[in-house]
Write a structure and sequence with these properties.
Length: about 210
């Protein structure tokens, strides 16, 4: 099954591709991993990964700038039911609106907003950067299968996804209060942390994503 990492000018594409290639090998699979900015390649993908690094609005503008990409993503995800993984801002873009440096429309695929972390009001360091322990709320989700209690992942962010439906939150971390670390609904999954930088935890999650059949 083909795995396509969307290239729209934002994201750790090289790191993400290497992590997915390693997970493919370690899982004994032969899935081709491709980085592409071609909407037709994305439209026909078996699995789609949307990375994202930087400001919410910049990432949204970058996605909009690739002619035909949004239509290709919608067809793949909502018509064909392709499993989708958003990483960091790639997850945040699923929200209806983001409030980083103004108010900006997201994709609206999962109702909610992206807001400044509550830690900012408590004097904690922003951005939230480094390793943090995951509190897994839905260990039965196939993409989270086998992640041990006390698993840690690597974060770099100042804003977080606040979904309208709390049941969409699969994993949280504590940073001045609970912060969404993984969001999941239907064939959509998003991680606020970077699985490509999260060593064993990240590789396990990626391997689970490769096997996932929502």
């Amino acid at each position: 099954m083909s795995v396509v990492i969307v290239d729209y000018g934002s994201g750790n594409l090289r790191s993400a591709a290497k992590a997915f290639e390693r997970a493919v090998v370690e899982s004994g699979r032969n899935d081709p991993v491709r980085v592409s900015s071609d909407p037709e390649v994305v439209r026909l993908a078996d699995r789609i990964v949307l990375p994202g690094v930087g400001a919410f609005a910049d990432c949204r503008h970058g996605l909009d700038a690739v002619t035909g990409m949004l239509d290709a993503l919608r067809e793949a995800v909502f018509v064909r039911g392709c499993p989708f993984l958003g990483i960091c801002v790639g997850m945040q873009l699923l929200a209806r609106v983001g409030h980083e440096h103004g108010r900006h429309a997201g994709l609206g695929w999962i109702d909610g907003e992206v807001a400044l972390l509550p830690a900012a009001a408590q004097g904690l360091k922003i951005p939230h950067m480094g390793w943090n322990e995951l509190a897994i709320r839905t260990p039965e989700h196939p993409v989270l299968y086998g992640l041990p209690a006390g698993a840690h992942a690597y974060f770099v962010h100042s804003y977080g996804f606040v979904p309208a439906d709390p049941d969409s939150i699969a994993v949280t971390v504590d940073y001045g209060g609970p912060v969404t670390a993984v969001i999941a609904r239907d064939n959509l999954v998003g991680t606020q942390f970077h699985p490509e930088k999260s060593q064993a935890t990240g590789l396990r999650l990626i391997a689970n994503f490769l096997r996932w059949r929502p």
